[in-house]
Each structure stands twice: as structure tokens, then as C-alpha cells.
Amino acid sequence: MTSLKELVLEQVRKYHREQEPGNFVPGVTPILSSGAVLDEDDRAAFVEAALDMRIAAGPSARRFESAFAAYFKLRKAHLVNSGSSANLLALTALTSPKLGEARLRPGDEVVTVAAGFPTTVNPILQNGLIPVFVDVELGTYNTTAERVAEAISPRTRAIMIAHTLGNPFPVAEIADLATEHDLFLVEDNCDAVGSTYQGRLTGTFGDLSTVSFYPAHHLTAGEGGCVLTGSLELARIVESLRDWGRDCWCEPGTDNTCLKRFDYQLGTLPAGYDHKYVYSHIGYNLKATDTQGALVLSQLRRLPEFVEARRRNFRRLYEGLADLPGLLLPEATPGSDPSWFGFPISVRPDAPFTRQELVAQLEDRKIGTRRLFAGNLTRHPAYQDAPCRIVGDLANSDFVTEHTFWIGVYPGITTEMADFVVDTVRSFATGRH
Length: 433
Ligand SMILES: Cc1ncc(COP(=O)(O)O)c(C=O)c1O
Known about the structure:
The chain has two domains: 44-292, Type I PLP-dependent aspartate aminotransferase-like (Major domain) (Aspartate Aminotransferase, domain 2, 3-Layer(aba) Sandwich), CATH 3.40.640; 302-431, Aspartate Aminotransferase, domain 1. Helices cover 35% and strands 14% of the residues. It contains 13 helices and 15 strands. The protein has helices spanning 4-18, 40-51, 59-72, 83-93, 118-126, 145-151, 171-180, 232-242, 290-300, 303-321, 355-364, 395-403, 415-429, and strands at 76-80, 109-113, 130-134, 156-162, 184-188, 196-197, 200-201, 208-212, 225-229, 327-328, 336-337, 342-347, 369-371, 389-390, 404-408. Strand 2 (109-113), helix 5 and strand 3 form a beta-alpha-beta unit. The mean pLDDT is 97. The structure holds pyridoxal-5'-phosphate. Residues 82-84, 87, 117, 119-120, 162, 188, 190-191, 212, 214, 225 line the site of pyridoxal-5'-phosphate (PLP). Belongs to the DegT/DnrJ/EryC1 family. It comes from Micromonospora deserti.
């Protein structure tokens, strides 16, 4: 007999099919720069978790963590409530007293990139550490191993860099530098799930890496993120920091996994103090819910298809725009195969039109555009008084701030849409609009 729940979920699937978007009308239907691509299985998985009232983290979150760690062939993944939280946890983990002498201390330096998303950098400042900013290259919008090497001082203890818009930074060379100088490496892989560098997935080179599941990203949980690591020691620290700072590692709702719940003596607590309530870190609560876990677990099935669609859309745009003067098109970092997040375009200063004019034309035709996030972060109000060190000039970060924007390649963009984008840019750049 069909259960009531099965009947409800069948109706949910039917409802999903009714929501399918209508035909694409050029200039009228918005072409988003990014967005979630959800099918009826995703909607059913999400609603099922809600029907079961799995409102805290639970079995789907755990299954996702195992499956996602397996995708990267890493030992542990921890689901959290955003990519920014993932970055905060990854960097904060490196300050843990559990790491003894290796831990980062206030005043230590972390090398990072000036042009990018703020929450790659914020955890450095939030932990009382000093960001050391290096510039990026134009075209790849990533930094180089040479620039990072130049930035390393006796106070440098870590490197934390994002793979810009899905394009890998030269992560193997930077990981080698980290090893050579005894530094930790955190890869902000929020925009690059599925990208490879020298045939290896980004997110697997660093001591820790992070992912975002905000709807703009390769997989979505609504809001969400993940911290990945191959180190069980770092994984334990991340979990503790995520879960209030607790020393205990029992799943929520379970007790005494270690079989020593009442046998510890830690800190200056009385012997036998309940291990569930012993805190070894100054922690947070950054957990995700099981509805988020169920959605992102369902999305994971489609990751190869999503990555392929992003690459296909990128190629279509690139081939359609390659011969246009006045534009600097994106370049994959040598040795990489990006799972692109977006398609960055810079308008050359000597072009007969400006970035603003091109963007206005695109937006007018309902083609979504975005900036390369903050551009030069050091120029934003929040960072005016922030302690930092800048190595070299940030001329290219400034260029990006003036001249660069990106358009979408996400899997919701069809070939027809990509062709309309190409036509719009071509007509504008060749003065035919
Ligand atoms: C490189 C990078 N890091 C971190 C984040 C933050 O992710 P979230 O929005 O999930 O906090 C983003 C967001 O787009 C990002 O692009």
C-alpha cells in the first residue's frame, strides 16, 4: 500500500514539473549569472527531510559528508552553514592549541590575494593574524607561486587563497612552497568544485579546503558549505570548533561513543565531569540542518553533469568572443582544467567602449553581470584600518576593480542563451547595437 508520505512526495514531484520554466525569449527571459539547478529528485529529497522533521543535522548530513569526502578521496568532510563559515573554521583550526608549537598565533602572517571574495581573507583578521596581500595576473585572475614566494617572511605561517571563479591557482607549486617553508595551506575551493590542476582535483592539495553551497555554486544546499581535510587531527579540531568547541565527538542525540563519558579529567574540572559538556576550543555553532544535507546529497548525483555543462558554456562563450578586439578573455591557468564558476571579461583601457557601457548593454538585455567580487579588497571601507602587509603593488587588482566583470556559465544556461550572450557582446563591441 502506498504510504501517505509517498503520496505527498508524488504530488511534490508533480508540482515540480508544473514549475518548469517556459521557452527562452531573448532580451526578455533573464539569463542569470548563476543560480541553482534543481530537479524533482532534489525537491522531493528536501521535502522528505522536512516531512520527517529532520530539522537539525542528521543522517543526510552525515551521508553527504562521507560521499563528498569520498569524491575528493579525502578522509573527512564537515558540512557547515556557509562557505564563509567553512573558511572561518578552516583557518581557526590552525590556531588550535591541540597543534602545540605548530599553531598560528596572533600577529602571525597569512599570505593571501588582494582581489577576491572578502571571506577568504576575513578569518585571517578575525583570528588576530595579519593578511599579506599579493597581486593577481590578468586573464587567469590568480596569483603566481613567484608572488607568493616573494611575500613569505619569518612571520609567515600559512597561505590561504581561493581558486578564482573556478580557475585553479598554481596550487601544486604553492603547495610545494608551503612544504618548503613549513607553512599550512588552505584552499578556498568554494568556486571550483570539479576543477583539476595537473590532473588532480583542487581542494586536495591543501591541509584544509573549503566549499560553498550557496545557490550560485556548483552544488547547492540553499545556504551551506563544507570543510575538507585529509588529516584526522585537523578534522577533529574543525568538528570541535563547528560544534560549540566541545571535546566530545558523539553525534548529536547519541551518548558515550568513546565509552569514557564519565572517566575524563580535563582542564581543572572535577574528575568524571560529563564529557559531553567539556570544551577544548573557544568554538562556534556553524552546523547545517538535515534539510540542507538532504538537498546537497541529492545534488551530488549530478555533479559530473554540472561540471561538464559549465565547461561547455565556457567554451561556447569563448569561441564566440575570441576574435573581438577590446576584450581580455579568461585564460585557464596552465596545467589546469577549470570547472568554471563564471566567465570573466576585462575591457581593455584602449577599447572604444568602457566596462560600464558594455555591462549596461548586457543588463539592458537581461543578461546578468557580476563584479570580480570585491576587486581590490584593500580599497573597501572595512579594510582601511585593518592591519596588513602588501607585497609589490596591487596594479592588477586595481585594474580588475576598474575593468573586469563576469557573466554566467552555470548549467541553467542553454546553448541558445549562450549564443544570445555572444551576439549581444559582438554587436556591442563591433558597434552594431
Ligand atoms: C571564493 C569564495 N569564498 C567564499 C565564499 C563564501 O561562501 P558563502 O556565500 O557560502 O558564505 C564565496 C561566495 O561566493 C566565494 O566566492
